[in-house]
Design brief:
Helices cover 56% and strands 19% of the residues. The protein is α+β, with helices and mostly antiparallel strands and 402 residues long. The protein folds into 3 domains: 2-34 and 232-400, Multidrug efflux transporter AcrB transmembrane fold (Up-down Bundle); 41-110, Alpha-Beta Plaits, CATH 3.30.70; 111-215, Gyrase A, domain 2 (2-Layer Sandwich). The chain starts with a helix and ends in a 9-residue tail after the last helix.
C-alpha cells in the first residue's frame, strides 16, 4: 500500500510541476520588469537653475543627487540611474515605470516647505522637519492628509507660530503654492502638525516622500526628455536567452545520464526552483537586468552543485551497505553543512553587493540572493522528500548509479 501511495504521489507531483511549468511560467516571464539594458526606458536631463545671489557648485549638485537617490528609493522606482553631467546637469534614466514622466516630475520638485501667517511672515521651514507620513482622515470623506513631526528647534518655532496666530490661519506653502490654511485653535507645543487638503492616498504618499527626503538645494528645469532603447539590443538579448536555454538543457541531460533516478529528481527540483525564482521576482516587483540573468545562471549552478553533493554522499552510504532510506538520511545530514556554508558565504557577498552596489550590480545581487534561498529550500526539502518517495517505490541501487 505504501508503494502504491508513493507512486500516486510521485505521479501527481510530476503532473503538477508540468502543468505549472506550462501554464504559469510564461505569464510570469511576461509580467517581469525588465531593466534599462533589456527594455529601455525614459531619459531625462535636468539643469539646475541659478537664482539671484546663489551659484550652482559641484557640492550643490552632489547634495541634489543624494536627495534624488533618497527619493528614488522611497518612491520604489523599479530601476533608475542618476549621474551628473557637466557642472549643472543631472541625468535620470528610468525603466519599468507605468508612468515614468510622473516619476520624473516628482523627483525634480524642490519640495520647499514653509509655514507663514497672513502677513507673509515665515515662521518655520522644512529644515526642521523630522518625519512626514501619509494617513487617512478620520472622517468618512476618503481623503488623505500628511502628519508632520518637527525636531526640537522646530517644535519651539511651531509653538511660537501657533501661539501668535490663535484664531487666524497658518498657511502651509510647498514650492510657493499654498496647499492648506488651517485656522489655529490654540497653541500647539508637541511638535506635530497636519497638512490637510483634497489629497488622494497616492498624492499624500508622494508628498510625504518628498518632504521626508528634504528640499532640493536648487530648482531644476527639464532640458531633454526622450525614450531610450535597450542598451544591449534585441540581438544580444536573444543570443543570451538561447545560450541560457542550451546550457540548462545540457545540465538536465547530464544529471539524468550520470545520476539516473536521482538526476531525474534533480531535474524536477530545478523546474520547481525556476518557477519559484521567477515568481519571487514578480511578487517582489524586482527588475531583471542582464547581470540579473547572470546571477540567476550562477544560482542554478549552485542548485545543481547542492544536488551533486547530496547524491555523492548518498552513493557513499549505499556502498557502505546501508539501506536506501538510511543512506538518504545520512547523505543529507552529511551534506547539509557543506551546502549551508557555501550558500551562506555567497549570500553574504550578495548582501554586500546589494547594499553598496547600484543599478545592474544591485540587480545581480537581488537575483542571486533569491536564487540561493530558493535553491537551498528546494534541495533540502523537496528533493529529500522525492528521494524518500522513490525509495519506497524501488530499492534497486543501480538506478542510483551504485
Amino acid at each position: 500500500m505504501q508503494r502504491n501511495t508513493s507512486i500516486a504521489i510521485v505521479a501527481a507531483i510530476i503532473a503538477v510541476i508540468g502543468v505549472i511549468s506550462y501554464f504559469v511560467y510564461q505569464p510570469l516571464i511576461n509580467n517581469m520588469n525588465l531593466g534599462l539594458d533589456l527594455r529601455g526606458g525614459l531619459r531625462v536631463v535636468l539643469e539646475a537653475e541659478e537664482l539671484e545671489g546663489e551659484k550652482v557648485t559641484p557640492d550643490t549638485i552632489d547634495k541634489a543627487l543624494g536627495i534624488l537617490r533618497t527619493r528614488v528609493d522611497a518612491l520604489g522606482v523599479k530601476e533608475t540611474d542618476l549621474y551628473p553631467q557637466g557642472d549643472k546637469r543631472v541625468v535620470i534614466e528610468i525603466a519599468g515605470e507605468d508612468d515614468p514622466e510622473a516619476a520624473v516630475n516628482m523627483l525634480k520638485n524642490t519640495a520647499q516647505l514653509q509655514f507663514m501667517d497672513e502677513e507673509g511672515k515665515i515662521w518655520l521651514t522644512g529644515k526642521n522637519l523630522v518625519d512626514a507620513q501619509a494617513q487617512m482622515k478620520r472622517d468618512s470623506t476618503g481623503e488623505a492628509e500628511i502628519a508632520l513631526e518637527f525636531d526640537k528647534e522646530g517644535t519651539k518655532l511651531f509653538g511660537e507660530a501657533t501661539t501668535a496666530n490663535v484664531g487666524k490661519p497658518l498657511i502651509i506653502v510647498i514650492d510657493d503654492q499654498a496647499v492648506s490654511a488651517p485656522v489655529v485653535q490654540g497653541p500647539i507645543m508637541d511638535g506635530h502638525a497636519v497638512i490637510t487638503g483634497s489629497f488622494t492616498a497616492k498624492e499624500a504618499q508622494d508628498l510625504a516622500v518628498l518632504l521626508r527626503s528634504g528640499a532640493l538645494p536648487v530648482s531644476f528645469k527639464v532640458m531633454e526628455k526622450r525614450s531610450i532603447g535597450p542598451t544591449l539590443g534585441a540581438d544580444s538579448l536573444d543570443k543570451s536567452v538561447k545560450a541560457g536555454i542550451m546550457g540548462l538543457i545540457s545540465v538536465l541531460v547530464f544529471m539524468i545520464g550520470y545520476y539516473r533516478l536521482p538526476g531525474f529528481i534533480a531535474d524536477l527540483s530545478l523546474a520547481l526552483y525556476t518557477i519559484l525564482v521567477a515568481g519571487s521576482m514578480v511578487l517582489l516587483d524586482a527588475v531583471l537586468t542582464l547581470p540579473g540573468i547572470a546571477g540567476f545562471a550562477l544560482s542554478i549552478g549552485m542548485a545543481v552543485d547542492a544536488n551533486v553533493i547530496i547524491y555523492e554522499r548518498i552513493k557513499e552510504e549505499l556502498r557502505w551497505g546501508k539501506t536506501m532510506l538510511a543512506a538518504i538520511e545520512a547523505g543529507f545530514n552529511r551534506a547539509f553543512w557543506t551546502i549551508f556554508d557555501s550558500n551562506l558565504t555567497t549570500l553574504i557577498t550578495a548582501a554586500v553587493l546589494m547594499y553598496f552596489g547600484t543599478g545592474p550590480i544591485k540587480g545581480f545581487a537581488v537575483t542571486l540572493s533569491i536564487g540561493i534561498v530558493a535553491s537551498m529550500l528546494v534541495a533540502l526539502t523537496f528533493t529529500r522528500w522525492l528521494l524518500v518517495l522513490f525509495a519506497n517505490i524501488t530499492k534497486n541501487q543501480k538506478l542510483y548509479g551504485v
